[in-house]
Specification:
five-stranded antiparallel sheet; mainly beta; 105 residues; 0% helix; single chain; 49% strand; globular
Amino acid sequence: KQWYQRRVRGARAQGQLQHWKVYFSSTTDKYTYEQVFKLDGPDLEVVDLPLVGFTAYYRGAVVPDAPPIVLGNMTSIGVQAYGGVYESYKQRGSGSLEMDYINLV
């Protein structure tokens, strides 16, 4: 079992973009593992992202039968605004995301 979760501390979105995702990728796995979150207001928020909530994607499409995330295989982490071809929600316009830090707790 994986008891860890990612915690984004002191996050705040500004501008028109409110929907964001954190993703892990590696040089050996063909999937990225992603989890989305929404920031509503101008106040700093704490965002908890349990590892069991990360879903496998391949080129932007969900892979339902992919193996669960193995942190030891991941070599990079990223944060991105989401909403696109395979998503029901579309975003447009400008925005920024401010974060104090991301940690594993």
